[in-house]
Request: fold
Amino acid sequence: MEFRYLGNSGFKVSEITFGNWLTHGSQVENDVAGQCVRAALDAGISTFDTADVYANTAAETVLGEALKDERRESLEIFTKVFGPTGPKGKNDLGLSRKHIMESINGSLRRLQTDYVDLYQAHRYDFETPLEETMQAFADIVRQGKALYIGVSEWTADQLREGHRLSKELGFQLISNQPQYSMLWRVIEAEVVPASEELGVSQIVWSPMAQGVLSGKYLPGQPAPEGTRATDEKGGAKMIQRWMRDDVLAGVQDLKPIAAEAGLTMPQLAVAWVLQNPNVASAIVGASRPEQIADTVAAAGVTLDAEVLKKIDDVIGGLAERDPAQTKSPATREA
Reply:
């Protein structure tokens, strides 16, 4: 495993982060989830990402149980706040001071830890003054409940304003967690340049475009049973944007490129996002422990300019690049 600094800090994370968005507490049984975490640790992954909203807090509980016997100082544990949790009442979501302060305590209890290494605003909250949100984060850092602060899916302008306030309040905003893959490149035009300017790293989710870049889905054929595209609880709705024959045919054209590079398709997809120097880590998930070892092999891989050009030639024209696709919900209604 290779490690990278997160933003303009001395804090290192593993190039591959294990995330439990669609799996723990919902898609797979808890014992299998524990096996996946064990496989991640055995593969050298030290960084784990979750959120209070995943499976309405159950994902945090599963991760906390799986990690409770590990040396805490050797791990980097991330979680997030914004989405609706609990009974989903009027104050059970968003980035108000009330919700943030109550949420960090709940997350720490479920994760069985005294602190998280990175606490992230899961989206931007248009209904709460940013000053209120950032002051709450500053207080959490001073209380020792979070070491660093990050955000997820913020625009370049939102990052700039959040970074300005964090400096005024005396803490570090060091990361952004956006979607990023060969097929979803919306951060490249504005978010990445702003982040480089500010000293903020990307921790990217869905580097395999919800599994489409694995090559398992074939044009003109139904999705195989048991895959994400057929699982209503496991992301079938999100993956639909890529289930077009032109996209699936383009992905099949990646197979010889991966083979020539000595990589599997998932390895090629993860290695591709890690070629961006502003990316500190790629989040991967697993519903079976054996999936971990294959993905982890993407760490430390260098794709030369010729391979990157071949990838762009076959799939670059199919990618979404509109910066306006980086967005948060207009309201925070549960």
Observations:
- The radius of gyration is 19 Å.
- The longest strand covers residues 76-81.
- The first helix runs from residue 30 to 42.
- Residues 155 and 326 are 6 Å apart (CA to CA).
